[in-house]
Specification:
The chain is of the alpha+beta class and 440 residues long. The protein has 14 helices and 18 strands. Flavin-adenine dinucleotide (FAD) binds next to strand 3, helix 4 and strand 10.
């Protein structure tokens, strides 16, 4: 039996009541067995956990929302430092900032902020942890207006490899502050709080359009020349399910009136003739709930990503269509997320998140129910990703993928060298390491 003396917070050891629930992450593809899971309720609990792993020389991982695509926040035979109990919150309405514990999930954060008619530009999934999504970048339906979520971070508090508590912002530990905005998950220390800049928000307009699979080329050709360049108040996505798995669809949020949105969308509508087109004027929070959908506890899936810097040629679209025509399952798709706007206004080297000048992101996605279906779905994702490599560059850290061999270049590009320097300075022993942590 492992000796848990020194660990504080809510400690769950292997085999004890609650252990099976505590070792579950969002991606049901994985089945990992940590020795101990500690739910931290304070920064001191986190510091104690770090001192404990140093003493016991056990592997450990940090977990917030547990949505890592490759379950990198779990570890067999080690300790999981779970920060989901860090939920302090201090909102300063005058200077439009909020300091929050690192354990928040997105929906409760949006709900709290909505009470004051402010928000941050995070992602759509309600249960994603604020820590993971922010530290890897953070893209959502306000990103073309307000940037990536990491662009709204003003300060972080971190427990270091020696259990010390430090603060990083643009005045102190500014190199660490830089690194945590795009490359900060699991490589430098445990983030215990974030201070975010807040943005006023009220009513928005949203749209949804659908097309038949046979319209794919026409729709992508138009969308890719339009969505990354249109009014930055509009962030738009395009979802392309595999053949016979439903309609092509595009959604978007515009921070203005429905009438203006209808006007902005007219050119796309006229060029592509959607089967259906809906427009709604709605409170921001209603739009958030709409895109959040119904709560889902777990899914089995394999996703990956790539970025598009130049419009996809007809040859690239032929490859894309071929993959969508040869999908193995019932939920195989590719998502396109428009970049540009505020994302692009920030220089590539201003934060660790390097993909500033892309037109859009691609997310290859595959979901299934039974374990026997895993292999063919995983193979399809890898085949799709690699066959698109001639037309894409890089990958998104938050859509982490164990199969990308040159992952460090793909996620961090020209910012990798500086990330390694920051790693060397703050964690020279490489205490904070996992399969895709920043190498020394
Ligand atoms: C259903 C779903 C929808 C998603 N939608 C979006 C979206 O709209 N936009 C978007 O940008 N991304 C999205 N993502 C991707 C998501 O941003 C990443 O999976 C993110 O890493 C999840 O963070 P987490 O805290 O929930 O996960 P975790 O598994 O808890 O953590 C992810 C990584 O961060 C590390 N980490 C966690 N907390 C800390 C901490 N406090 N200090 C240091 N390291 C830490 C972990 O060790 C792990 O490596 C989605 C993912 C899923 C599964």
């Amino acid at each position: 039996m492992v000796n848990t003396e020194g660990l504080t917070g809510h400690v769950i050891v292997e085999g004890s009541p609650g252990y099976d629930a505590a070792r579950q992450n969002y991606n049901g593809r994985f089945n990992k067995f940590p020795k101990v899971i500690v739910y931290c309720n304070s920064t001191q609990d986190v510091a104690n956990a770090i001192l404990w792993v140093r003493k016991h020389r056990l592997p450990f991982r940090i977990r917030c929302g547990g949505h890592s695509y490759e379950a990198y926040s779990l570890v067999n035979g080690g300790l999981v430092i779970d920060v989901s109990g860090l939920l302090d919150l201090q909102l300063n309405k005058e200077d439009l900032t909020i300091q929050i514990g690192a354990g928040f999930r997105l929906l409760p954060l949006y709900e709290t902020l909505w009470n004051q008619r402010v928000t941050v530009p995070g992602g759509t999934c309600p249960t994603v942890g604020v820590s993971g999504v922010t530290l890897g970048g953070g893209y959502g339906y306000l990103s073309r207006l307000l940037g990536m979520l990491c662009d709204s971070v003003l300060e972080i508090e971190m427990v270091t490899a020696h259990g010390k508590v430090i603060r990083a912002n643009d005045r102190q530990h500014s190199d660490l502050y830089w690194a945590c905005r795009g490359g900060g998950d699991g490589s430098f220390g445990v983030i215990t709080s974030f201070t975010f800049r807040l943005h006023p928000i009220g009513n928005v307009a949203r749209y949804r359009m659908t097309w038949d699979f046979s319209d794919l080329k026409k729709v992508v050709r138009y969308w890719q020349d339009w969505a990354p360049h249109t009014d930055p108040r509009l962030t738009s996505s395009l979802t392309l399910p595999a053949r016979n798995q439903g309609d092509l669809r595009s959604n978007g949020i515009y921070t203005g009136s429905e009438q203006e949105l209808r006007r902005i969308m007219r050119s796309l509508q006229e060029a592509t003739r959607p089967k259906t087109a809906e427009f709604h004027s709605t409170a921001w929070m209603e739009a958030v709930r709409f895109f959040a959908g119904q709560p889902v506890k777990q899914e089995k899936f394999k996703n990956s990503s790539a970025y598009v810097y130049e419009p996809l040629s007809d040859a690239a679209l032929d490859v894309l269509i071929h993959n969508l025509q040869t999908a193995p399952g019932f939920a195989n798709l590719i998502g396109l997320d428009a970049y540009g706007g505020a994302i692009r206004r920030i220089p590539v080297d201003a934060t660790a998140f390097p993909h500033r000048n892309v037109l859009f992101g691609l997310q290859y996605q595959s979901y299934w129910h039974e374990d026997e279906e895993a292999d063919e779905n995983i193979k399809w994702i890898e085949q799709f990703r690699t066959s698109m490599l001639p037309y894409t560059r890089g990958a998104y850290r938050d859509y982490i993928d164990a199969m990308i061999v040159d992952w460090s270049d793909a996620y961090f590009g020209e910012n990798l060298a500086k990330l390694k320097e920051v790693k060397q300075k703050y964690d020279p022993e490489n205490l904070f390491r996992f399969e895709q942590s920043i190498p020394l």
